[in-house]
Amino acid sequence: MTGDFLKGRNIGFIGTGNMGQAIIRALVNTNKIPAERIFATNRTQGKLQKLVEQMGIRALINNEELLEHCDVVIISVKPQDFISGIEPISSAFGLNHTVISLMAGVSLRTLKKAMPNVRNLIRAMPNTAALINKSVVGFCLAESAKGMEGVAEDLLSALGTVVQVEEGEEFEALTGFMFKWYWIRIRIDDLLAGMARRAWLRSGNCESNDCEYLFRSLSFGRSGARNSTAGTTKQSGF
After folding, report:
1. Distance in angstroms (rounded) separating the CA atoms of residues 223 and 226
2. pTM for this model (two decimals)
3. What is the pLDDT of residues 60-92, one digit of tens each?
4. How does 182-215 read in b/e, with b if 16+ C-beta sit within 10 Å?
5. DSSP assignment of the chain, as one string?
6. What is the pLDDT of residues 17-55, one digit of tens each?
7. pLDDT given for residue 49 in this prediction
8. Hey, what long-range contacts does 86-89 have (CB within 8 A, 24 or more apart)?
9. Which residues contact 53 (CB under 8 A, 6 or more apart)?
10. Which of 49, 74, 73 is nearest to 61 (CA)?
């Protein structure tokens, strides 16, 4: 149950923060889901409208409308906004919905309590490398969602490598390791790029401005990832 399940279904995003945007861009750019079948809501309309113009997805006015249009719903809001955003529409979630939560620290038990009618509940945690589609994505399933492993893997694979784990210590250990490894990799890349830059400048084989351009291009947006995820890493204790 992978491609056949997603075929023809609408995907909805409640919240289009950094991680939500990363998934939308990955799904569209890899042609996994056509842009016209991706719907989204967001508290900040300006940010949502910009995403609509860039990616061609469809913006909706409220979450109730999104639930009417979409079979698969990805919740990408801040954990502290979950109850106030989902509780008023909890009864609108039904057996037909597959819900994937990207919220850090919100357990499957809490999700089930807030959305009791949903059987297919999936909790996923991409790391910040999802912004460049090089993530390791950990996910776990509610008991009632057994059999949906392939769907989760198919949908999340656009972000990188997908790993299924059990919720609890295993899930927290994986996500904690992913955050640490990502920042270690950034530090190593920075050190190597700096060493190469100094060696090349000393060799006299290129002009200073040319070297600056080259090594800035090697950063592949890492500085942007740092800035956009500063709050995430702080919250996670790294």
Report:
1. 5
2. 0.71
3. 999 999 999 999 999 999 888 888 888 899 999
4. beeebeeeeeebeeebeeeeeeeeeeeeebeeee
5. --HHHHTT--EEEE--SHHHHHHHHHHHHTTSS-GGGEEEE-SSHHHHHHHHHHH--EE-SSHHHHHHH-SEEEE-S-GGGHHHHHGGGGGG--TT-EEEE--TT--HHHHHHH-TT-SEEEEEE--GGGGGT-EEEEEEE-GGGTT-HHHHHHHHGGGEEEEE--TTHHHHHHHHHHHHHHHHHHHHHHHHHHHHHHHHHHHT-S-HHHHHHHHHHTTTTHHHHHHHTHHHHHHHT-
6. 888 888 899 899 888 899 999 999 998 888 899 999 999
7. 92
8. 86/14, 86/114, 86/115, 87/114, 89/63, 89/64
9. none
10. 49
d(CA 33, CA 26): 9
**Token pair 């057996």 is at which residue?**
95
Is the distance from CB of 127 to CB of 182 less than 8 angstroms?
Answer: yes
Residues sharing a CB contact under 8 Å with residue 129, sequence separation 6 or more, in sequence order: 135, 136, 160, 178, 182, 225
Q: Residue for token digits 């890899």?
A: 30
The answer to whether 111 and 79 are in contact (CB under 8 A) is: no
Compute, in degrees rounded to 10, the torsion defined by CA atoms 28, 29, 32, 34: 30
